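Translate sequence into structure tokens.
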Amino acid sequence: MAAQLLTTRPQQLMPTAPNVPETSTVVFRRPDGAMESYRIPWSKSGVPLTTVGKYPTPTARAETRLAEEEPSYMSLLHRLQNCRLPNRGYDRTVLGVGAQTPVFASALAALGDGFTQRLGRAAADTFYSGVILVRQYIVGFFRIPVYGPLNPQTALTQFMKEIAFFQANTDGLIIDETRNPGGSVFYANALLSLLMPYHWTS
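Result follows.
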């Protein structure tokens, strides 16, 4: 493959492929040690993709970015950012894949001095969350069932509000993403950026 890329530059593998010059000078070493130079023109075809806009670095303002109107080509790029597991029957053989409620929900009540559920009761809830009292500590519990919700904007808004609650009212936080089948890389990065205590770039 490396040898092939000496003469073929597909842009899907090499983003700067359209920047190759009209003609390149290639130097060959003959078996006797002599050097030979050749000028070889590049044959370019297709329409180069020269700009797709700046990939948004997720921050606390990710909610605003998702709400902004996107160019038409972004719908294709969002499909390319998919990292969801292919459906090969695991949802029928493994319990709780992509489910909002964790498979160990019944065991949460036995943790510490009890579990108080917050999200996951209403149909509009994207996530499952609650608060666990462990001795003198209050620990938040937050489950991310999938990274491809039906409405990413609504999910992100709900996520930000719940994280703000945990930040103000708990001593620690448990993030549960067990049996999460994946989804959008952009959406996952947006959630992750809101959990990082320092500047983070995807």
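Note: The first strand starts at residue 23 and ends at 29.
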